[in-house]
Amino acid sequence: MSQLGERIRQLRERKQMTQKELASESKLTIVQLSRYETNHRKPDPDALSKIADALETTTDYLLGRSSSPIQEGDTGRAYYGGSEQLTPEEIMVAEAAIDAYRKALKVQRNQ
């Protein structure tokens, strides 16, 4: 369970989210989220599920029961030969690039 906080933080940072943004999206307080990321507290099943949904991952990945951060049935990577053709690191890099692109577009549209 010690990797839980690390995985939450890593995915949050890859998605370029602040703790405040993730807390808001998962309907938790920043204090709760901070304690989960630092492994000072363990989230209850409901909080864990909300975090996983907000990070678009699975509770199994956050708990260390799976090495893949992608959700089951995620078909958005079929044009790369399917997610089974990519390493978890390649998937995270691709997702981070897409997220950065989307944020840049959002900023551009708001100007």
Provide a short characterization of the protein structure.
This protein is mainly alpha-helical and 111 residues long. Helices cover 59% and strands 0% of the residues.
Description of the molecule:
By secondary structure, the protein is mostly helical. The chain has one domain (2-71, 79-110): lambda repressor-like DNA-binding domains (434 Repressor (Amino-terminal Domain)). Helix content is 59%, strand content 0%. It contains 6 helices and no strands. It has helices at 2-14, 19-25, 30-37, 45-54, 59-62, 88-110. Helix 2 (19-25) crosses helix 3. The longest helix is centred in the C-terminal third of the chain and has 23 residues, at 88-110. The model has no long low-confidence stretch (mean pLDDT 83).
CATH architecture term: Orthogonal Bundle
Helix content: 55-70%
The CATH superfamily is lambda repressor-like DNA-binding domains
Text of the CATH class = Mainly Alpha
* Envelope shape: globular
Largest sheet properties:
none
So how many helices? 6
Amount of beta strand: under 5%
The rounded Rg comes to 14 Å
